[in-house]
Amino acid sequence: MRKSQHKWSQPIRHSIQIADAIEAIATGIEGMSVELAEVVHNTVTINKAVDEIAAVSEQSAAGIQETSATIEQTASSMAEIKHSAEHLAEMAEQLNARFRQFKL
User: Fold this and answer.
1) 44 partner at 20 to 30 Å CA-CA among 15, 27, 92, 101?
2) Which residues contact 37 (CB under 8 A, 6 or more apart)?
């Protein structure tokens, strides 16, 4: 009987070792699955943050363009005012010159 017990005990031992190895692999796969789910969650969170940053950047760019347009309009208005002031100064000089001629 001992021989038959020995004959079956080694394959049983191997089967138990294989089962233990399969269980360890399954546990490892479950752990990786949990970690992968965390990575996916973090990736989604990061993508949302990137989208929010992009939206803010677009709003900032629009604001900068609007400010730039306002500055251009202001510069144009200031140029017109300067031109008008120069024209008024010329007219004042002409008026002074005529006034002096009239006075003489």
Assistant:
1) 27
2) none
Can you tell me the distance from the alpha carbon of 66 to that of 75, in angstroms, rounded to the nearest whole number? 14
The secondary structure of residue 104, as a DSSP letter, is: -
**Which has the closest alpha carbon to 100: 76, 92, 55?**
92
How far apart, in whole angstroms, are the C-alpha atoms of residue 49 and residue 52? 5
pLDDT tens-place string over residues 26-84: 999 999 999 999 999 999 999 999 999 999 999 999 999 999 999 999 999 999 999 99
- The Cα 4–Cα 27 span in angstroms is 35
- Tell the residue number behind the tokens 């006075």, with chain if given: 103
Q: What is the DSSP string of 14-68?
A: HHHHHHHHHHHHHHHHHHHHHHHHHHHHHHHHHHHHHHHHHHHHHHHHHHHHHHH
Residues ≥6 apart with Cβ < 8 Å to 45: none
